[in-house]
Amino acid sequence: MKNKLRKALDWILLIIIPALIFYATQYIVFNISDNIKPKMQIANIVFFELAAWFLVALTGKVKWALRIEIILFWFFALADAYVYIFRDSYIQPWDILSFGTAMNVAGNYDYTPNSRMIIGSLCCLGLFALTFLCDVDIKKIFNKAAARIAVGAVTFAALVVFALGLQNTKLCKELIDFHEGKFRLYVTTQYNGYVMGFLNKMQYMSVKKPSGYSAAEEKKLLDEIEPDLSGATEEYPDIVVVMNEAFSDPAVDGKFTTNVDYMPFIHSLQNGGENAVTGYVNVSVNGGNTPNSEFEFLTGNTLAFLPEGSIAYQSYVNKDIDALPRYLDSIGYETIGMHNYEASGWNRENVYPHLGFEEIHFDDYFYQFNPTLVRDYISDKSLFDQIEYELENRKDSNSPVFSFSVSMQNHSAYDGDPENFERTVFIDGFDDPEDKYVKRLNNYLSLVKLSDEALQEFTEKLKKSDRKTIVVMFGDHQPSPSVLRKIYELNGENYKELDEKANENLYRVPFVIWANYDIEEEKGVETSLNYLGNYVLKKAGIPLTKYRTMLDKISEELPVVSAIRAVDSDGVSSAVSEAGEKTADYRKIQYYELFDDKDDYK
Fold this sequence. Notes:
By secondary structure, this protein is an alpha/beta fold. Helix content is 48%, strand content 10%.
């Protein structure tokens, strides 16, 4: 009887220790009870059990298999916890690519453990001690090498299937309550477990090479390009770019009227404003994923050729690459990247230096200047005031400035009645102003009006300046269709069942290029974000880089390329996948620029 109990205890330990390893190591990273749902916990436990049995097959010893598992996952969890402390983000698959850089600066941090690390590590130590009690007799199972190989192959295959299954975020959301945390890198880890969060992000690690691609040929093609210098000027202007959060003109989505114009200044520029270029820019996202719009504008690359659902800042900008700030810095500009919200959002604090920004500022910097808040966010007026301050306090009075800012004022959600926000725009056609959907839309339109006013005020100040300045403003994306549902109702449409044309319009936002000196006016321009940077450079009299010169030629045949559609020179719109050979050259040269270009960006 005693012998049977002993064997039972051994098997119980073999089963429960892997599960306890998950809970102990996850506690080091983040508290499970706060976020990880029961189905997700079970999925994690299954993974740890499979890992244990694979190690058993590999080593032939249960004790050592469990000990190895404890040490491996304890180390990974501890590293994850420290990385979060240092940069507000957990370890991601693409961090492997920058491991050398991480080691170079590893000695600059304080590694004093916090209470969670200590408690979790003590739990792991306790589990390690339990392995001394485990003496499972597995000779009957593994008495032959073939049996061990078979078990190892099966468990390894199961782990691979598990990892690949986690690449299908939609399926995982349905089956195991997987939480897709896009806006913050850390959310996927905190809601799903540090192992599951890591495995899910592996889907964005690589991009397939285009058919017929050769890095040598693409480099040769770039080397042979002669940039057009005909429009170059001797005196470069300051360039101020504001990518305005969720800024759009819902008039592209349907007809409606309001008590007052919600963007009178921009509408006046669109109707032939002096020294202005206006139109609509096609973006690749709707309702979120802001950094993809930044990426397209700053690099000239398009999300059309990257995996669906990927976030370029998180997955692909892990080294210095060709981008507007890097190029402008090379020709004498001071380059400033600003976002008046958290530095950790979308990995910007790590990405901006890779893009070539000389200075970067986030919300902590803004709060030193006592900005005005609208709802919970720094107002666009305060953002423009800060830009004005940076221009006036440039390091070198003779150097032009390139300032790129991402705003937050208009970020969702649009519900409620905040005390520090006045609703001034009201849509016509609805009897109940307190209807939550009507109120939501009125709030959004009122925020848009504040942005329009802030832009106008800023340009009025610049008219009095003796420094040449170009101002660019565009929206990163429209709000989600549900915010605009009342507009769709007025036009007899259901926002959940939009036709192809209406869906395309969801990805169009207004842009403005304005100068306080004479430039050639244009209106009604239809382009996409990957080309907008070229418009700005040419209006500023700055020669295009070789890569951008090639994009300029591509834009003549394909004036719009986004993840949503491609539009050719005849105005024919299609999915990018259906554009065929027209996009082939762009696909290949972008792949080279993003993944194989080692020094051309310099």
